[in-house]
Amino acid sequence: MEKITLIATAKFGLEKLVKNEVVALGFENPLVSEGRIEFEAALADIPRANIELRYSDRVLLKMAEFPATTFDDLFEQAKALPWENWITRDGKFTVNAKTIKSTLQSDRSCQSIVKKAVVERLKEAFNVEWLEETGADFTIQVTVRKDIALLTLDTSGAGLHKRGYRLQAGEAPLTETLAAALVKLSFWEKDRLLIDPMCGAGTILIEAAMMMRNIAPGLHREFASESWPAIPREAWIAAHQAAEAAIDRSGSLQIQGYDIDEHAIAAAKANAERVGVADDIVFAQKDIKDLWIDRQYGILISNPPYGMRMYDYRDINQIYISLNKMFKKKTGWSIYILTADKKFPDYFKRAWPDRKRKLYNGNIEVTYYQYYGERPLREDADTRDQASN
Length: 389
Ligand SMILES: C[S@@+](CC[C@H](N)C(=O)[O-])C[C@H]1O[C@@H](n2cnc3c(N)ncnc32)[C@H](O)[C@@H]1O
Fold this sequence. Notes:
Blueprint: E1 3-9, H1 15-24, E2 31-33, E3 36-42, H2 45-52, E4 58-67, H3 71-79, E5 92-100, H4 107-126, E6 137-145, E7 148-154, H5 176-184, E8 194-196, H6 203-212, H7 233-246, E9 255-259, H8 262-275, E10 281-285, E11 292-293, E12 298-302, H9 313-327, E13 333-339, H10 344-347, E14 355-361, E15 364-371, E16 387-388
Parallel strand pairs: 5-6, 8-9, 8-12, 9-10, 12-13
Antiparallel strand pairs: 1-3, 1-4, 2-3, 4-7, 6-7, 11-16, 13-15, 14-15
């Protein structure tokens, strides 16, 4: 079977998670660099990677990587590539370009040079004078970093964070890929209580439930490469069937989400319904100051308002006071807070964070503060207690 090279892109700080999931999908020896996990694959792996990858932003097909310090280099090498193996005679293609610390500095010029090269190549390959560009969509990404040009075709289309379930979002929602990563980094397990007391549209909890139910993140959406004739339809069908068959509905989950905003809670419920995890999560409207936790053990993952966007500092202070009051003495709880507020550890007095991770929510630099709780004894990991008011 013909080998291709795929690149799963990763947000800053999430490369290792993406690498691990690439390996878990059966791809060997992936190469990891900043924001990018590169691996050898077969054609039929394009559907699988797109449907299954949970923490990656996009799956790119690598066309070539070469040194380029002049526009001639870029043009000739781009033109030498077999674009006609992928882009159809009527294919509509867009070129995006970005240059970073390189001799070639103009994104626009790189974009138009590569567009011209691909047009020339396709006209010759299809023996036509004119490309109609009325058919399937193709996006070529050109990145010139430190004088090395990387040319890829985007197989995903919309970013992989668009799972298709979040038609309604609250204020300042987290991207789904980041929310999934927060859950993965928390060591939450199926038999443990997970709560998000400021859950907004429920993204963290919905991603958690999908993960535990083994619901593939891309099961409910389409991908740009689904309309590429180069990828056999059967490969998409097989990848969908395998993902459906892997869903695990056994046992029950203990997941609870609260928010002060009733519209956010309504959105969270609708989102959970759409992806098939509504029965796994209890959502209710509640101000964090009215939340009462009587469980000894549990996991809390949340991203409170940052202040700069939505709330003033008195509201945020009140939230921190509530968190502190509730969890200062509950050493059996692991607390995970994602915030842009660097002062958070000064307010949460239980301990100093066991770990801090710098991440990005969109363009905003945020920190994931991780406070590890004691692990429950086996007999404590039951479902007797409730987090209630
Ligand atoms: C940054 S947003 C969380 C977004 C969420 N992670 C998502 O992906 O949709 C912060 C949330 O905190 C909620 N909130 C603010 N003050 C609150 C309070 N006192 N109690 C509970 N929730 C509160 C807001 O309504 C908002 O939905």
